[in-house]
Amino acid sequence: MSRFDRRKFLASGLQLSSVVFVAKARASACVDTDELSDSVLGMRESLEYTDEGKNPQQVCNTCTYFKPAKPGDSCGPCEVLTSPVSAKGYCVSWTKKG
User: How many whole angstroms separate alpha carbon 97 and alpha carbon 50?
Assistant: First the structure.
């Protein structure tokens, strides 16, 4: 195999792994943000929503505003953000379930 062929092979491998990574990231998201309205996107931004909370005790699954269809769902609607969110997500409006 010539040096050029190795480079081409390695470049192809890197491209494929990038495609797999992006596809996996999209599959794990609860909602395609391209489909959300500007007002919902603005609300998510202003409340600093993230799909992965830093503190496992303060994630959407433990928030009073998170309403999954059934216990254990990885996604569910948020009453504040008015859109689906990740059970592991977080925003500054997080309020402990009472």
Answer: 19
